[in-house]
Amino acid sequence: MERTFVLLKPDCIQRRLAGRILARFEDKGLNLIAMKMLKVTPELSKQHYAEHLSKPFYPALESFITGGPVVACVVEGLEAIRVVRDLLGATSGLKATAGTIRGDFSSSRQMNLVHASDGAEAAAREIALYFRPEELCAYQPTLTPWFRAADEG
Ligand code: CMP
């Protein structure tokens, strides 16, 4: 089982797409184990996007990500980090394959609706940035036996 961090960005909330996008993760059989609405501060943005701080697009990214409420989530499942990235599609909504979340709902590179961790190290770091350990609510969903066979993990 893997855990990954998902952030529904301000464009997702403002466009009232949160429910439909969360449903994609639920439909896939992933488990939502933590969720909170918050406003990202400039300090949190700099920590979250530390690897992009020196990029030319960082100032615009910070003003976008701090510009409205977001919903932070932890999603759990088999190969959850890759599976969630595949569900999102390519960074740019214009390039993302139809059928992915960004391919279906976004036509922007910056306003691409959702962020998800790109690896195990990023997932651990980002989950810890947004959640205290006691805010993660792991549970055994009763439908699991109807999503995958017992020997699949
Ligand atoms: P995300 O997956 O959250 O990771 C970094 C974010 O920066 C990305 O999604 C986009 O919102 C934004 N981003 C990435 N590349 C660019 C770019 N070239 N111009 C503007 N914003 C970008």
- Structural class, by secondary structure, is alpha+beta
Ligand list? adenosine-3',5'-cyclic-monophosphate
Total helical segments: 7
Q: Please report the distance between the alpha carbons of the first and last residues.
A: 7 Å
| CATH T-level fold name | Alpha-Beta Plaits
* Oligomeric organization of the protein chains: single chain
Spans where pLDDT lies below 50 across 5 or more residues? none
Strand % is: 15-25%
- Give the rounded overall mean pLDDT: 97
* Rg: 15 Å
Q: Indicate the CATH architecture.
A: 2-Layer Sandwich
* CATH class designation: Alpha Beta
By CATH's scheme, which homologous superfamily applies? Nucleoside diphosphate kinase-like domain
Strand order of the largest sheet: 2-3-1-4
Structure description:
The chain has a four-stranded antiparallel β-sheet. The model has no long low-confidence stretch (mean pLDDT 97). The chain has one domain (2-148): 2-Layer Sandwich (Alpha-Beta Plaits). The radius of gyration is 15 Å and the shape is globular. The protein has seven helices and four strands. The longest helix is centred in the first third of the chain and has 11 residues, at 18-28. It is of the alpha+beta class. The structure holds adenosine-3',5'-cyclic-monophosphate (CMP).
